[in-house]
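Let us work through a complete example step by step.
Step 1: write down the sequence.
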Amino acid sequence: MTDMTGEQILDQALRQELVAIKPVDKPYVNITWQVSDFCNYKCSYCNPGNWAGKNKKDDGFEEIIANLKIIIDNYKARGYEGFKFYFSGGEPTVWPHLIPLINWLKTEVDDPHIGINTNLSRSTKWWEEHYHLFHDVVASFHIDFADQERYLANLLLLQDKVNYLCSRMMMQEDRFQEVMDFGAKVKGLLQNYNVEWVPLFDELSVNAGPWEYSEQWMVDFFTECSFESQQQLPKPNGSKWNIASKEVYKSGHELSLNGNRVVAERRNFFRGWKCHVDEALFIDTLGNITAASCGQGPKLGNIYKEVELITKPIICAKIQCTCGTDIMITKEKE
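Step 2: predict the structure and record it as C-alpha coordinates.
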Protein backbone atom coordinates (compact mmCIF):
# COMPACT_ATOMS: atom_id res chain seq x y z
CA MET A 1 0.00 0.00 0.00
CA THR A 2 2.85 2.40 0.72
CA ASP A 3 3.98 2.16 -2.91
CA MET A 4 0.61 3.23 -4.26
CA THR A 5 0.06 6.75 -5.54
CA GLY A 6 -2.56 9.01 -3.99
CA GLU A 7 -4.83 8.54 -7.00
CA GLN A 8 -4.51 4.75 -6.79
CA ILE A 9 -5.37 4.76 -3.08
CA LEU A 10 -8.41 6.96 -3.76
CA ASP A 11 -9.55 4.76 -6.63
CA GLN A 12 -9.19 1.56 -4.59
CA ALA A 13 -10.97 3.04 -1.57
CA LEU A 14 -13.89 4.30 -3.60
CA ARG A 15 -14.46 0.82 -5.03
CA GLN A 16 -15.28 -0.27 -1.47
CA GLU A 17 -18.18 0.44 0.85
CA LEU A 18 -18.13 3.51 3.10
CA VAL A 19 -18.62 2.23 6.66
CA ALA A 20 -17.83 5.19 8.93
CA ILE A 21 -17.01 8.86 9.23
CA LYS A 22 -14.77 9.60 12.19
CA PRO A 23 -12.67 12.42 13.66
CA VAL A 24 -9.09 12.46 12.41
CA ASP A 25 -7.95 12.93 16.01
CA LYS A 26 -10.11 13.39 19.11
CA PRO A 27 -13.90 13.92 19.09
CA TYR A 28 -14.80 17.59 18.85
CA VAL A 29 -17.88 19.76 19.22
CA ASN A 30 -19.37 21.10 16.00
CA ILE A 31 -21.83 23.99 16.36
CA THR A 32 -23.45 25.21 13.14
CA TRP A 33 -25.43 28.41 13.37
CA GLN A 34 -27.77 29.80 10.72
CA VAL A 35 -27.66 33.24 12.27
CA SER A 36 -30.46 34.84 10.22
CA ASP A 37 -32.52 34.35 7.08
CA PHE A 38 -31.46 37.64 5.50
CA CYS A 39 -29.44 37.42 2.29
CA ASN A 40 -28.77 39.96 -0.44
CA TYR A 41 -29.07 37.12 -3.00
CA LYS A 42 -32.24 35.23 -3.94
CA CYS A 43 -30.95 32.26 -5.90
CA SER A 44 -33.43 30.14 -7.84
CA TYR A 45 -32.19 26.93 -6.21
CA CYS A 46 -32.47 28.34 -2.68
CA ASN A 47 -35.71 28.50 -0.67
CA PRO A 48 -37.01 31.68 1.01
CA GLY A 49 -36.11 30.25 4.41
CA ASN A 50 -32.55 31.23 3.59
CA TRP A 51 -33.12 34.72 2.20
CA ALA A 52 -36.58 36.14 3.01
CA GLY A 53 -35.39 38.23 5.96
CA LYS A 54 -38.33 37.41 8.24
CA ASN A 55 -36.09 36.23 11.12
CA LYS A 56 -33.18 38.65 11.21
CA LYS A 57 -32.73 38.31 15.04
CA ASP A 58 -30.75 41.48 15.65
CA ASP A 59 -31.31 41.55 19.44
CA GLY A 60 -30.82 39.24 22.42
CA PHE A 61 -27.02 39.25 22.58
CA GLU A 62 -26.86 38.84 26.37
CA GLU A 63 -29.20 35.85 26.25
CA ILE A 64 -27.04 34.29 23.54
CA ILE A 65 -23.90 34.65 25.64
CA ALA A 66 -25.54 33.21 28.77
CA ASN A 67 -26.82 30.09 26.99
CA LEU A 68 -23.65 29.57 24.97
CA LYS A 69 -21.71 29.50 28.22
CA ILE A 70 -24.01 26.74 29.50
CA ILE A 71 -23.40 24.76 26.30
CA ILE A 72 -19.63 25.24 26.35
CA ASP A 73 -19.29 24.41 30.05
CA ASN A 74 -21.36 21.23 29.55
CA TYR A 75 -19.07 19.95 26.80
CA LYS A 76 -15.93 20.89 28.73
CA ALA A 77 -17.24 18.90 31.71
CA ARG A 78 -17.62 15.89 29.38
CA GLY A 79 -13.98 16.16 28.34
CA TYR A 80 -14.27 17.93 24.99
CA GLU A 81 -11.47 20.35 24.17
CA GLY A 82 -11.90 21.18 20.48
CA PHE A 83 -14.79 23.41 19.44
CA LYS A 84 -15.80 24.37 15.91
CA PHE A 85 -18.25 27.22 15.35
CA TYR A 86 -19.52 27.51 11.81
CA PHE A 87 -21.68 30.48 10.88
CA SER A 88 -24.07 30.51 7.93
CA GLY A 89 -27.26 32.26 6.88
CA GLY A 90 -28.67 34.00 4.97
CA GLU A 91 -25.51 36.03 4.65
CA PRO A 92 -23.86 35.84 8.09
CA THR A 93 -21.43 38.74 7.60
CA VAL A 94 -24.33 41.23 7.86
CA TRP A 95 -25.56 39.83 11.21
CA PRO A 96 -24.73 42.54 13.79
CA HIS A 97 -23.79 40.04 16.52
CA LEU A 98 -21.23 38.14 14.41
CA ILE A 99 -18.03 40.01 15.26
CA PRO A 100 -18.82 40.64 18.98
CA LEU A 101 -19.80 36.98 19.35
CA ILE A 102 -16.59 35.66 17.79
CA ASN A 103 -14.53 37.96 20.02
CA TRP A 104 -16.38 36.59 23.07
CA LEU A 105 -15.87 32.97 21.95
CA LYS A 106 -12.13 33.54 21.73
CA THR A 107 -12.09 34.52 25.41
CA GLU A 108 -14.33 31.65 26.53
CA VAL A 109 -12.86 28.72 24.53
CA ASP A 110 -9.23 27.72 24.10
CA ASP A 111 -8.51 28.52 20.45
CA PRO A 112 -11.97 27.84 18.96
CA HIS A 113 -12.05 26.94 15.29
CA ILE A 114 -14.13 29.61 13.54
CA GLY A 115 -15.62 29.04 10.09
CA ILE A 116 -18.06 30.94 7.95
CA ASN A 117 -20.10 30.22 4.84
CA THR A 118 -20.43 33.48 2.92
CA ASN A 119 -21.29 34.66 -0.57
CA LEU A 120 -18.22 36.93 -0.29
CA SER A 121 -20.22 40.00 -1.23
CA ARG A 122 -18.92 42.21 1.59
CA SER A 123 -16.34 44.81 0.63
CA THR A 124 -12.65 43.96 0.56
CA LYS A 125 -12.21 46.60 3.28
CA TRP A 126 -14.55 44.60 5.56
CA TRP A 127 -12.45 41.49 5.05
CA GLU A 128 -9.22 43.41 5.64
CA GLU A 129 -10.59 44.40 9.04
CA HIS A 130 -11.95 41.00 10.09
CA TYR A 131 -10.10 38.15 8.33
CA HIS A 132 -7.97 37.52 11.43
CA LEU A 133 -11.06 36.22 13.27
CA PHE A 134 -11.60 33.26 10.91
CA HIS A 135 -9.82 29.96 10.29
CA ASP A 136 -12.13 28.80 7.46
CA VAL A 137 -13.84 30.92 4.84
CA VAL A 138 -16.13 28.93 2.56
CA ALA A 139 -17.14 31.25 -0.28
CA SER A 140 -20.13 30.10 -2.31
CA PHE A 141 -20.24 31.46 -5.84
CA HIS A 142 -23.75 32.13 -7.15
CA ILE A 143 -23.47 33.23 -10.74
CA ASP A 144 -26.86 34.97 -11.05
CA PHE A 145 -26.01 37.50 -8.33
CA ALA A 146 -22.28 37.58 -7.58
CA ASP A 147 -20.14 40.63 -8.32
CA GLN A 148 -17.42 38.62 -9.98
CA GLU A 149 -14.70 41.28 -9.64
CA ARG A 150 -15.34 41.72 -5.91
CA TYR A 151 -15.49 37.95 -5.37
CA LEU A 152 -12.09 37.56 -7.03
CA ALA A 153 -10.60 40.53 -5.17
CA ASN A 154 -11.67 39.05 -1.84
CA LEU A 155 -10.24 35.66 -2.77
CA LEU A 156 -6.92 37.29 -3.66
CA LEU A 157 -6.85 39.01 -0.27
CA LEU A 158 -7.79 35.91 1.74
CA GLN A 159 -5.74 33.25 -0.05
CA ASP A 160 -2.83 33.51 2.41
CA LYS A 161 -4.69 35.14 5.33
CA VAL A 162 -6.84 32.21 6.52
CA ASN A 163 -6.04 28.56 7.07
CA TYR A 164 -8.68 27.29 4.66
CA LEU A 165 -10.31 29.20 1.83
CA CYS A 166 -12.72 27.32 -0.40
CA SER A 167 -14.57 28.53 -3.48
CA ARG A 168 -17.77 26.53 -3.82
CA MET A 169 -18.91 26.72 -7.41
CA MET A 170 -22.69 26.24 -7.29
CA MET A 171 -23.30 24.36 -10.54
CA GLN A 172 -26.47 25.96 -11.81
CA GLU A 173 -27.72 23.92 -14.76
CA ASP A 174 -28.72 26.75 -17.11
CA ARG A 175 -25.32 28.45 -16.64
CA PHE A 176 -23.20 25.38 -16.05
CA GLN A 177 -20.46 26.23 -18.56
CA GLU A 178 -20.22 29.81 -17.29
CA VAL A 179 -19.63 28.57 -13.75
CA MET A 180 -16.97 26.19 -15.07
CA ASP A 181 -15.28 29.10 -16.84
CA PHE A 182 -15.35 31.26 -13.72
CA GLY A 183 -13.87 28.42 -11.65
CA ALA A 184 -11.06 28.19 -14.20
CA LYS A 185 -10.48 31.93 -13.74
CA VAL A 186 -10.19 31.44 -9.97
CA LYS A 187 -7.57 28.73 -10.49
CA GLY A 188 -5.70 30.93 -12.94
CA LEU A 189 -5.51 33.95 -10.63
CA LEU A 190 -4.86 32.42 -7.21
CA GLN A 191 -1.70 30.80 -5.95
CA ASN A 192 -3.59 29.17 -3.10
CA TYR A 193 -7.01 27.78 -3.91
CA ASN A 194 -9.53 25.10 -3.04
CA VAL A 195 -12.30 24.82 -5.61
CA GLU A 196 -15.34 22.63 -5.03
CA TRP A 197 -17.67 21.89 -7.91
CA VAL A 198 -20.98 21.57 -6.10
CA PRO A 199 -23.89 19.52 -7.48
CA LEU A 200 -27.13 21.20 -6.49
CA PHE A 201 -30.11 19.85 -4.63
CA ASP A 202 -33.63 20.63 -5.80
CA GLU A 203 -33.83 23.11 -2.92
CA LEU A 204 -31.59 24.11 -0.06
CA SER A 205 -33.51 22.47 2.78
CA VAL A 206 -33.26 19.45 5.07
CA ASN A 207 -35.64 17.47 2.81
CA ALA A 208 -33.89 18.24 -0.47
CA GLY A 209 -33.33 15.69 -3.18
CA PRO A 210 -30.44 15.69 -5.67
CA TRP A 211 -30.80 17.90 -8.72
CA GLU A 212 -31.39 15.81 -11.82
CA TYR A 213 -29.12 17.33 -14.46
CA SER A 214 -30.57 16.87 -17.92
CA GLU A 215 -27.29 16.69 -19.82
CA GLN A 216 -25.09 13.61 -19.41
CA TRP A 217 -21.88 15.63 -19.77
CA MET A 218 -22.89 17.55 -16.64
CA VAL A 219 -23.43 14.32 -14.72
CA ASP A 220 -20.08 13.03 -15.95
CA PHE A 221 -18.37 16.25 -14.90
CA PHE A 222 -18.95 15.50 -11.22
CA THR A 223 -17.48 12.01 -11.47
CA GLU A 224 -14.34 13.46 -13.03
CA CYS A 225 -14.00 16.65 -11.02
CA SER A 226 -15.33 17.42 -7.53
CA PHE A 227 -12.47 19.20 -5.79
CA GLU A 228 -9.23 20.87 -6.88
CA SER A 229 -6.56 22.35 -4.66
CA GLN A 230 -3.25 24.17 -4.86
CA GLN A 231 -1.01 25.84 -2.27
CA GLN A 232 1.99 27.89 -3.35
CA LEU A 233 1.93 30.58 -0.64
CA PRO A 234 2.39 30.03 3.11
CA LYS A 235 -0.73 30.49 5.19
CA PRO A 236 -1.53 30.70 8.92
CA ASN A 237 -2.19 27.63 11.01
CA GLY A 238 -5.65 26.51 11.93
CA SER A 239 -6.91 25.96 15.45
CA LYS A 240 -4.57 24.05 17.78
CA TRP A 241 -7.20 21.29 17.80
CA ASN A 242 -7.48 18.94 14.85
CA ILE A 243 -11.00 19.82 13.74
CA ALA A 244 -11.30 17.44 10.82
CA SER A 245 -13.00 14.18 9.88
CA LYS A 246 -12.16 11.20 7.67
CA GLU A 247 -13.96 8.63 5.55
CA VAL A 248 -13.41 4.99 6.56
CA TYR A 249 -13.98 2.27 3.96
CA LYS A 250 -14.63 -1.44 4.35
CA SER A 251 -11.24 -2.11 2.78
CA GLY A 252 -9.59 -0.34 5.70
CA HIS A 253 -8.62 2.68 3.62
CA GLU A 254 -9.09 6.09 5.17
CA LEU A 255 -9.48 9.37 3.27
CA SER A 256 -9.85 12.97 4.35
CA LEU A 257 -13.56 13.72 4.34
CA ASN A 258 -14.82 15.40 1.20
CA GLY A 259 -18.55 15.87 1.75
CA ASN A 260 -19.02 17.19 -1.76
CA ARG A 261 -17.57 14.00 -3.23
CA VAL A 262 -19.60 11.83 -0.84
CA VAL A 263 -22.76 13.49 -2.19
CA ALA A 264 -21.67 13.38 -5.83
CA GLU A 265 -20.86 9.66 -5.50
CA ARG A 266 -24.26 9.01 -3.85
CA ARG A 267 -22.63 7.73 -0.66
CA ASN A 268 -24.66 10.02 1.61
CA PHE A 269 -27.25 7.39 2.58
CA PHE A 270 -26.88 6.66 6.30
CA ARG A 271 -30.23 5.19 7.33
CA GLY A 272 -29.64 2.68 10.14
CA TRP A 273 -26.22 4.11 11.01
CA LYS A 274 -25.28 5.18 14.52
CA CYS A 275 -24.84 8.96 14.33
CA HIS A 276 -23.26 10.93 17.17
CA VAL A 277 -25.57 13.91 16.98
CA ASP A 278 -24.76 14.66 20.62
CA GLU A 279 -21.48 16.15 19.35
CA ALA A 280 -23.17 18.47 16.85
CA LEU A 281 -25.59 21.31 17.49
CA PHE A 282 -27.56 23.26 14.91
CA ILE A 283 -29.08 26.64 15.69
CA ASP A 284 -31.68 27.93 13.22
CA THR A 285 -32.71 31.48 12.34
CA LEU A 286 -35.20 31.59 15.22
CA GLY A 287 -32.58 30.39 17.70
CA ASN A 288 -34.05 26.89 17.99
CA ILE A 289 -31.40 24.31 18.83
CA THR A 290 -31.39 20.72 17.62
CA ALA A 291 -28.82 17.95 17.64
CA ALA A 292 -27.68 18.17 13.98
CA SER A 293 -29.58 20.09 11.29
CA CYS A 294 -31.24 17.13 9.55
CA GLY A 295 -34.27 16.81 11.82
CA GLN A 296 -33.18 13.46 13.24
CA GLY A 297 -31.82 14.80 16.50
CA PRO A 298 -34.08 16.03 19.31
CA LYS A 299 -34.95 19.65 20.01
CA LEU A 300 -32.71 21.14 22.68
CA GLY A 301 -34.24 24.50 23.50
CA ASN A 302 -33.52 27.96 22.15
CA ILE A 303 -30.31 30.00 22.26
CA TYR A 304 -32.34 33.09 23.28
CA LYS A 305 -34.23 31.30 26.10
CA GLU A 306 -32.91 28.04 27.56
CA VAL A 307 -30.98 24.95 26.49
CA GLU A 308 -30.98 21.23 27.28
CA LEU A 309 -28.27 18.90 25.98
CA ILE A 310 -28.06 15.17 25.22
CA THR A 311 -25.15 12.75 25.63
CA LYS A 312 -26.07 9.80 23.38
CA PRO A 313 -25.97 9.05 19.64
CA ILE A 314 -29.07 8.12 17.63
CA ILE A 315 -29.84 5.59 14.92
CA CYS A 316 -30.49 7.56 11.75
CA ALA A 317 -33.88 7.03 10.10
CA LYS A 318 -33.41 9.47 7.24
CA ILE A 319 -32.82 8.24 3.69
CA GLN A 320 -30.05 10.64 2.74
CA CYS A 321 -27.83 13.24 4.39
CA THR A 322 -27.77 16.51 2.45
CA CYS A 323 -25.88 18.96 4.69
CA GLY A 324 -22.08 19.05 4.75
CA THR A 325 -22.00 19.78 8.48
CA ASP A 326 -24.22 16.73 9.13
CA ILE A 327 -22.15 14.48 6.87
CA MET A 328 -19.05 15.24 8.95
CA ILE A 329 -20.68 14.12 12.22
CA THR A 330 -19.14 10.94 13.60
CA LYS A 331 -21.17 7.98 12.34
CA GLU A 332 -20.76 4.23 11.88
CA LYS A 333 -22.69 1.69 9.86
CA GLU A 334 -24.39 -0.78 12.19
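Step 3: interpret the result. The chain has a mean pLDDT of 90.
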